[in-house]
Amino acid sequence: MGTSNSQPEQHPNPELEKPWRKFDRGQKEALKQKLQNFSPSDPNVKDIKILVAGQVGAGKSSFINSIESVFQGRICSRALVNSSAVGHSFTQKLKGFTIRSGDRTLPFVFKDIMGLEPEALAGSQPEEIINAVFGHVKDGYKFNQGQALVNQDQHYISDPTLSDQAFCLVYVIDGNTVQFTDDKLIDKLKIIRHRISDRGIPQVVIMTKVDEACPLVKNDLGKIYTSKRIKEKMEMCSTTTGVPMTNIFPVKNYHEEIDTEDNIDALILKALEQIVQIANDRLLDCESY
After folding, report:
1. For 46-287, which CATH class?
2. Of 22, 209, 211, 249, which one is least surrounded by beta carbons within 10 A?
3. Domain boundaries in the chain?
4. Which residues pair with 156 in a beta bridge?
5. CA 108 to chain centroid
């Protein structure tokens, strides 16, 4: 009888030997304390405003809820989320969300905006996002697809102050589908990035749904920076948006959990710390003009 020379199928190791980005999962309380003690560099600016934009269904409203969940120690859902995949933005109006820690209100506000869609007249338009970043749009403005906000509108601020402006644009991308991002959506992103970069507004990418994007991370969120797949997805995000890797942060939003978890909290807090620092650096630049 002959012997078989077949060998077991070899699968490439999905994990790097060591983390490619330094991250201390035990820093949750230190990060939380640092953010609770934060105050804007300009005493005339009460809070740092941060605009959150993104693909429909990527989890931008869930990201805002997850931030508050970390500080409250329970699952929060002030920014309404639609759980059904309808393909269109559930958020219809511009709304600012303060972040509370216990009874305290922290000095940063997240502005939730209608999701971006590939179709020319669907979802929020690049010009509306640009206007919102520069502080021209009041809370409560309902996005009118196909018709941009004009000077005469009651929700238009013709001469915004520093307190009206956003000092960082956070773009939320679904890490599970980043490689399939529509070219038309990319074109909208490029318009926004070019216009706000001309005015020195920094951008950050939050890459969500990392547990769906990588089985290794689904089993152990602590392996997020040893996962080859997550690193590849982040590199795709950087290539797609033009945002450098240093400003891209993978997170898992609270979605099906009923209690907060330290590993999820630590990733969200680290992303938030960087967002707040980047935004405050922009405020410092404004003060020097």
Report:
1. alpha beta
2. 22
3. 46-287
4. 137
5. 14
